[in-house]
TrEMBL record:
The keyword Aminoacyl-tRNA synthetase applies. One of its GO terms (cellular component) is cytoplasm. ATP binds at R221, D222, E223, E486, G538, I539, D540, R541. HAMAP family: Asp_tRNA_synth_type1. This is Aspartate--tRNA(Asp/Asn) ligase. Residues 199-202 are annotated as: Aspartate. Its EC number is 6.1.1.23. One of its GO terms (biological process) is aspartyl-tRNA aminoacylation. Signal peptide: none annotated. Residues 142-559 form the Aminoacyl-transfer RNA synthetases class-II family profile domain. It is an enzyme of class 6 (ligase). L-aspartate binds at E175, R221, H453, R493.
Length: 591
């Protein structure tokens, strides 16, 4: 017999009754039934109930067992009494009578309990991650992640892609976040960087004549943490293709992701129609470039109804350039209590408040209520109701000013309204391509033109587009949103040196600086670069959605905490003095 097990803790059933078996695993829990000890023995595959009474030669040893001790047992498979069968377990028809036992690894007093659903502070969970990972939900999340990655690989190979690995140690290349720098011992005073993404390398693979590339790629960014973002590193399904247009990329990645969500989404509906929404419209309708389309609410501009109206705040606001009033329809939200609650929400978000109108039935017909309705009169309120398509029992909320100042709050308010009124379909994955991103923006304080989005995107219209107003230039850049999260980002690349130099020149970067920062890529484009494009899908975020988790750390094996610390391995740590000397570095104390 194998020294540790003849079966896993999920294999035994009635057909094994009478057999002598060997199992190894962890003591999940112990129950003492008056001289008979019942133990749930757990391994990564499942749980088997084992038992021991005073007739067993190892009863005294079994009595010493505590939760999470790692043990091996030899025993005889017995059928459970029919009334004691546990239909929730694959092994629920049997139990194993212990005849011999070996402690493989004793456990000290536990800082967190593996059995059950007790809540522990995240700091405790991360410090003892190896115990936290033994919990059923974490085992399930990590297996899901592994299965998703394997399925991604299979689907990419089936689509005629090959996987190529790109360097982990490379040159610094600003791509929107801070680099992690790595000092060079052989070249004192110089630094490598961990790649924020394989962006330049995958483009170089296309220049090298490989038509299709993909990689399950680690990416490193020194970012401020959020619930849906790791502060140090993450993984993405990275892909690139030659001789393609934007739609070709969409048509390639959609069946891959659709299949992943159908296979692992737990039966939730997966939308087959993925609309393409311009960045401008997404901001207007949803207040974000990663809209949750499960929520049917669409915001609208209603400025014309407030111009010259009796509501002086909005009327005066609209006299300023670049301002507008937007409405958030709220079907079913027509009560003063709900409206007051949403007004308070806006104040908690840092705004003075949020105007509202709600429509109620007064017996003799519909009436518009609320402070705004009184100020602007029945004719304007009726025009607003008709524009928004609202009825009795509905409401609308209003925000005004320069859109960039209130769009984000409006987007969050839309989400809260959809959730509280039960409008958002939670049992569904809804996707949307966000397209037509502006390449440039103007700094309102300095007036300087700079890149708003990916500087490597091909401008729509090519060189001719760069001869006009920079703020009107759109790029062949796109994101894929799903249920309020950005899952994919990509672009058709700017592969022509003359267009690239012009694009950077508009943002104030001379040709010499471009060559210095991106020399490898620029040089390669001098030698017959093909048109190419691609995208990258965030694996951590995809698994987070599939696992129905709200925090990305729940689907990462060994994540950092909110302060970018590894409490288990005690990183970051202070270097040894000889390490610093070898690298020619010294640490300057911070005041």
């Amino acid at each position: 017999m194998h020294p540790y097990r003849s079966h896993t803790c999920a294999e035994l059933n009635k057909s094994n009754v009478g057999e002598t078996v060997r199992l190894s695993g962890w003591v999940h829990r112990v129950r003492d039934h008056g001289g008979v000890l019942f133990i749930d023995l757990r391994d990564t595959f499942g749980i088997t109930q084992v038992l021991c009474d005073s007739d067993s030669p190892v009863f005294a040893e079994v009595e010493k067992l505590r939760s999470e001790w790692c043990i091996r047992i030899d025993g005889t498979v017995k059928a459970r009494d029919e009334s004691l069968v546990n239909p929730k377990l694959p092994t629920g028809e049997i139990e194993v009578y212990i005849r011999d036992m070996e402690v493989l690894g004793a456990a000290d007093e536990l800082p967190l309990i593996v059995f059950g659903d007790q809540e522990y502070p995240e700091e405790t969970r991360l410090r003892y991650r190896y115990l936290d990972l033994r919990r059923e939900v974490m085992q399930r999340n990590m297996k899901l992640r592994s299965d998703v990655v394997a399925a991604m690989r299979r689907r990419m190979w089936d689509a005629d892609f090959r996987e190529y690995q790109t360097p982990i140690i490379t040159a610094s290349s600003p791509e929107g976040a801070r680099d992690f720098l790595v000092p060079s011992r052989l070249h004192p005073g110089k630094f490598y960087a961990l790649p924020q993404a394989p962006q330049q390398f995958k483009q170089l693979i296309m220049v090298s004549g490989f038509d299709k590339y993909f990689q399950i790629a680690p990416c490193f960014r020194d970012e401020d943490p959020r619930a849906d973002r790791s502060p140090t590193d993450f993984y993405q399904l990275d892909m690139e293709m030659s001789f393609v247009e934007q739609q070709d990329v969409f048509d390639t990645i959609q069946p891959v992701l659709t299949g992943i969500f159908e296979d692992f989404g737990g039966g939730r509906k997966v939308d087959q129609d993925w609309p393409q929404i311009s960045y401008k419209d997404a901001a207007l309708w949803y207040g974000t470039d990663k809209p949750d389309l499960r929520n049917p609410i669409k915001m609208q501009v209603v400025s014309e109804h407030f111009k010259g109206s009796g509501f002086a705040i909005f009327a005066k606001l609209l006299e300023q350039d670049g301002t507008e009033i937007r409405a958030i329809p709220a079907p079913g939200g027509g009560s003063r209590k709900f409206c007051d609650r949403m007004n308070k929400f806006a104040q908690e978000q840092g705004l003075p408040g949020m105007g509202y109108i709600f429509w109620r039935d007064q017996g003799e017909g519909m009436e518009a209520a609320g402070p705004l309705a009184k100020n602007i009169g029945p004719e304007r309120t009726e025009a607003i109701r008709q524009q928004l398509g609202l009825e009795v029992g509905d409401a609308a909320f209003f925000l005004g000013g320069k859109p960039k100042a209130f769009e984000a709050v409006a987007g969050r308010a839309r989400t809260v309204i959809g959730d509280e009124l039960g409008l958002t379909d939670k049992d569904r994955f809804a996707f949307a391509w966000i397209v037509d991103f502006p390449i440039y923006e103007r700094d309102e304080e300095t007036g300087k033109i700079d890149f708003e989005h990916n500087p490597f995107s091909m401008p729509q219209g090519g060189m001719a587009a760069l001869e006009g107003d920079p703020l009107e230039v759109k790029g062949y850049q796109y994101d894929l949103a799903c249920n309020g999260y950005e899952l994919v980002s990509g672009a058709i690349r700017n592969h022509k040196p003359e267009i690239m130099f012009k694009a950077f020149e508009i943002a104030g970067y001379g040709a010499d600086e471009v060559k210095k920062r991106f020399g490898g890529l620029v040089n390669a484009f001098q030698y017959g670069a093909p048109p190419h494009g691609g995208c990258a899908a965030g694996i951590d975020r995809i698994v987070m959605l599939l696992a129905e988790q709200e925090n990305i750390r729940e689907v990462i094996m060994f994540p950092m905490n909110q302060r970018a610390e590894d409490l288990m391995m005690q990183a970051p740590s202070e270097p040894m003095s000889d390490q610093l000397m070898e690298l020619g570095l010294r640490v300057i104390p911070q005041d």
